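hey so i finaly got around to running the thing on Sulfate adenylyltransferase subunit 2 from mine drainage metagenome. pasting the sequence first so u can double check i didnt mess up the copy paste, my clipboard has been acting weird all day
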Amino acid sequence: MNAPLDLERLLPQIDHRHLDALEEEAIYILREVAGGFERPALLFSGGKDSCVVLRLAEKAFKQRQASGAYAGRLPFALLHVDTGHNFPEVIAFRDALVKASGDALIVAHLDDSIRRGTVRLGHALESRNPHQSVALLEAIEQHRFDCLIGGARRDEEKARAKERIFSHRDHFGQWQPKEQRPELWSLFNTRLRPGEHFRAFPISNWTELDVWLYIARENIALPKLYYSHPRRVLRRKGLLVPLTAVTPPQPGEAVETVQVRFRTVGDMTCTCPVESAAASATEVVAETLTATLSERGATRMDDRTSDASMERRKKEGYF
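ok and heres what it spat out for the 3d tokens, dont ask me to read them lol
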């Protein structure tokens, strides 16, 4: 039997210098967005990637106090598309963080789109994740956003790997892979025609390991779902499905309590945890070093429908 890892001795041996380069690039991108667009917004869900982007934005635009807190307000609002099926712990974390920071938060509710008739569900327990695009595009039109800052990374999925750091969207909000603009020598073409907008991804070149190393280094607060905790789950199609009101057991399925953590958080109907004993960012780093599946491949039911599922949704306006 292998001896347990001595994390306190292991992690200092990891070279963190690349994080400084990634941080510098991300802050440069955020400042390019602020300088190049009139009405940008930062997509903030309370997930780990958006928490990292928010910390980078604080470093780019706020003043750090002796206490370690950041004073001031960001030059753009935070925008969250709420499906109505988000984990309650994440929504509570989001609201507490925004209240403490003093930044503006705009919430686009998918329930509003359902009431307007722009989103129609096949049944009450249908996954709302694919329908986020409609609520997002409606928020963009209502608030006249010309650039949305997101926490997507190229290592997450094949379609994300194709995307530029400044991703052009047409007047329908669609992503056209063959019409993306070159980004040579960190020069970004941000010209827009009426009705078009951009998505900007400051941590596009980061990996899941980079994100967790940065969380550990910066001591970034996250929802407790990201760390090991006991949860009632169902085993379905090789995944652990959390037992919730919108993910009830199917005939023949047994409910069991397992020690798990979430690698990503989103709509409860399609986001699954993984078995884990990692109770801190340092322990998650050690666990991530040995992971063989991407976080979306290991935890997202909606990305298992086909290899092109993410690309199809992005062409429809998804994040």
